[in-house]
Design brief:
Layout: E1 2-6, E2 12-16, E3 42-43, E4 46-48, H1 51-67, E5 72-73, E6 80-85, E7 92-102, E8 111-122, E9 126-134, E10 150-151, E11 157-158, E12 166-168, E13 173-177, H2 184-187, E14 196-198, E15 203-210, E16 215-218, E17 221-225, E18 229-239, H3 241-244, E19 262-267, E20 270-273, E21 282-292, E22 300-305, E23 311-316, E24 336-337, E25 344-351, E26 361-375, E27 377-381, E28 387-391, E29 397-408, H4 416-419, E30 423-426, E31 434-439, E32 448-454, E33 459-464, E34 467-471, E35 475-481, E36 485-488
Parallel strand pairs: 4-9, 12-17
Antiparallel strand pairs: 1-2, 3-4, 5-7, 6-7, 6-10, 7-8, 8-9, 10-11, 13-21, 14-15, 15-18, 16-17, 18-21, 19-20, 19-22, 22-23, 24-26, 25-26, 25-35, 26-29, 27-28, 29-32, 30-33, 31-32, 33-36, 34-35
Length: 492
């Protein structure tokens, strides 16, 4: 007979059965419960037949789950299966709880794998059960028993929430939020970590690395390596523009919308994708993992850009060496430039008719650059109101986004799709960059402009050009502008 072991999120693998099935319902009249003579366990007031056998079968099922790398043992010895007590003497939950284990990408605290049990027979006083495939938590998540008291058929008990030291064995990968901000020296992270990789939605920078013999994981508990394993800790600073940049949060997209980038750890050829839920929008984490005593090949991080033009960037840990050259559009340290304090331009808009409480005539305003990004993908807003994600694929080119804010007495009318052509971005060779698109709201001028530029550009000039435009409900609008803004680009 075959057995199905469920992996994370309901994935299944068919395995050859290695254990006998439970007795048929007709055998329920013969009690095997409490064979150790210590405890009687019951569900719904009926005594469980042979709970020790259920524990053993659950442990065999869990062994397959461990073998596939869906979870990693994290206690002393192999994980064991327990019944969860429900308050009344001997009354237990209808599932086994097996552990402690580590679910890849979750915090380094005790996790348990629930295993459901199916009723195969019963009489007035007894119930016979059969273990089902383990219900493995998806990566980055963990399950905890429904009770603070776990018990085995021999009467052994344990508290699943007790603070205990943990062991990092094969396939152990944990993400721990850095809340105490201790120094690297205090934590034994004494090696440099020049790991830097980013795209337009996710950026990670290594800030510390170490091979400690143990590592604190909170509440006084300590993590140590298991037999045949060594401990590694990579400290990372994480930025997720895909979550913090409002431009990526639009609801209506034409074509592919932005897809959250992924971050994966590769150890000894095995790849573990870190759950995005465990990465902060802006903050620091420890990536804690086990490697074999002789790791081959060395570990690495993989940043995956997902979408119609997918991309993977692989960097070695801890030296940051790239497996392949980064696209020119992502060659800067982080893609975000500092903006000079005086990045502004005086403009005047002359209207022929009054609008929104403003009389006809000259209206003075000031245009200020508030942000600059250089990268491979940027969102724009089409004339239809839908958003579109631009991706630069030309060799040696990048997308430069310039965000602007306009203050003054301009008419409050949505005219960005028209006035966008009044802007010019001048490159160092005095040529004009191609305008790829804009984002706009309810103002006369756009809120952001996206240009195609040489990826190695380090200074530009941008501003409104003097001229006339025709705006619905306003008619002719004459724009008069001062000198364009000199914009040095400093990406750190």
């Amino acid at each position: 007979m075959s057995r199905t072991v469920h992996g994370p999120g309901g994935r299944a693998a068919i395995l050859v059965s290695v254990g006998a099935l439970l007795l048929g319902a007709a055998a329920c009249s013969t009690s095997h419960a409490g064979t150790s003579g210590t405890v009687t366990l019951s569900i719904g007031g009926k005594q469980i037949v042979d709970p020790a056998r259920l524990e053993a079968e659950g442990e065999r099922e869990l062994a397959y789950t461990v073998g596939f790398g869906y979870v990693s043992p994290s206690g002393t010895g192999l994980p064991r299966c327990w019944f969860a007590q429900l308050g009344l003497t001997g009354t237990v939950d209808e599932r086994l709880w097996c552990g402690p284990v580590q679910v890849p990408g979750s915090p380094p605290t005790n996790a348990w794998v629930p295993i459901s049990m199916k009723k195969t027979g019963e009489n007035d006083s007894q119930i016979q059960l059969q273990v089902q495939p383990p219900d493995v938590p998806i990566p980055g998540n963990r399950s905890t028993p429904v009770s603070d008291s776990l018990i085995r058929a021999d009467g052994t008990t344990t508290n699943p929430k007790a603070v205990v030291n943990r062991t990092a064995s094969a396939n152990f990968v944990a993400v721990l939020t850095d809340t105490e901000h201790k120094s690297n020296a205090e934590l034994g992270l004494t090696e440099p970590a020049p790991v830097r990789v980013h795209d337009d939605l996710l950026a990670v920078n290594g800030t510390g690395y170490g091979r400690p013999s143990s590592f604190p994981i909170g509440d006084g508990a300590t993590l140590v390596p298991g037999n045949g394993s060594q401990l590694r800790v990579l400290r990372l600073h994480v930025e997720r523009p895909g979550k913090t940049d409002p431009a990526f949060g639009a609801q209506q997209w034409s074509g592919w919308g932005p897809q959250q980038s992924t971050l994966s750890l590769v150890v000894a050829g095995r790849r573990t994708m870190l759950s995005p839920d465990r990465l902060p929008d802006s903050g620091d984490v420890f990536l804690i993992y086990a490697v074999p005593d002789k790791p081959d090949p060395p570990e690495s991080l993989v940043l995956g850009s997902v979408g119609a033009n997918s991309l993977e960037q692989t960097v070695a840990v801890p030296d940051g060496r790239r497996a392949a050259k980064a696209p020119a559009s992502l060659a800067t340290a982080g893609g975000v430039s500092k903006v000079p304090a005086n990045a502004s331009q005086k403009i005047t808009a002359r209207t022929a008719v009054p609008y929104g409480g403003l009389p006809a005539g000259d209206h003075a305003a000031e245009l200020t650059v508030t942000g600059v990004r250089l990268g491979r993908q940027r969102p724009i807003k089409l004339d239809s109101g839908d958003y579109q994600l631009l991706t630069e694929v030309a060799d040696g080119k990048a997308l430069l986004e310039v965000a602007i804010r306009t203050t003054g007495q301009l008419p409050a009318i949505m005219a960005g799709p028209v006035t966008k052509n009044s802007f010019a971005l001048t490159l160092p060779d005095n040529s004009k960059a191609k305008l790829m698109g804009v984002r706009y709201d309810g103002d006369l001028l756009p809120a952001a402009l996206v240009f195609e530029v040489p990826a190695d550009v380090r200074s530009v000039k941008i501003g409104v050009s003097t001229g006339a435009v025709t705006v619905s409900a306003l008619g002719r609008v004459d724009l008069t502008a001062g000198a364009p803004i000199d914009l040095p680009l400093d990406f750190g």
